[in-house]
Amino acid sequence: MKHVWLCLLALLLIALEGMAMNLLPSSLLYGEWQIVPHWTLLFVLLLSIYYDSNETYQSLWYALGTGLFVDIVYTDVIGIHMMVYVLVVYIVHGLNKLLQSNVLVVTLLVLFGVVTGDTLLYIIYSFLNIAEMDWGTYAMQRLLPTMIGNVVFFLFTFVFLKYLMQKLADDN
């Protein structure tokens, strides 16, 4: 039953990612800054930190599924988000084994995951000639606002998601 709740929450976050652009003020949308919500990646990263143990990798399956679903719903190229989500979750899962899971470390791990994921997506889309920004423009107008926006979302949802993940992990 717990996997059903986790899947429903992941689907809700995928839907909210698309609606978030409509909820943001138009000055943020049509200005120079571009905020890209990576809430599903954030959710899977927290799943990796608080739900998985050192020996389990269930969050990789969630990263695979949510990444594929994001690709199907929001992009024209299938598999890019799926690959990036799995790679980032795997790296953060490995780093989490080495570090203690306090609020500061988890915030830095999530920030690292979002920055790595968004940068990898930019690099892949640049190779495919889909991204039309140069690196400096991307870093200042998209990466920095995306970091700030996702950290703000993380700080608002951290307590709830941490409690949910730990409760579901304890039920194992």
TrEMBL record:
<feature type="transmembrane region" description="Helical">
    <location>
        <begin position="36"/>
        <end position="53"/>
    </location>
</feature>
<keyword id="KW-0133">Cell shape</keyword>
<dbReference type="InterPro" id="IPR007227">
    <property type="entry name" value="Cell_shape_determining_MreD"/>
</dbReference>
<dbReference type="GO" id="GO:0005886">
    <property type="term" value="C:plasma membrane"/>
</dbReference>
<keyword id="KW-0812">Transmembrane</keyword>
<dbReference type="Pfam" id="PF04093">
    <property type="entry name" value="MreD"/>
</dbReference>
<feature type="transmembrane region" description="Helical">
    <location>
        <begin position="60"/>
        <end position="92"/>
    </location>
</feature>
<protein>
    <submittedName>
        <fullName>Rod shape-determining protein MreD</fullName>
    </submittedName>
</protein>
<feature type="transmembrane region" description="Helical">
    <location>
        <begin position="143"/>
        <end position="165"/>
    </location>
</feature>
<keyword id="KW-1133">Transmembrane helix</keyword>
<feature type="transmembrane region" description="Helical">
    <location>
        <begin position="104"/>
        <end position="131"/>
    </location>
</feature>
<comment type="similarity">
    <text>Belongs to the MreD family.</text>
</comment>
<keyword id="KW-1003">Cell membrane</keyword>
<dbReference type="GO" id="GO:0008360">
    <property type="term" value="P:regulation of cell shape"/>
</dbReference>
<keyword id="KW-0472">Membrane</keyword>
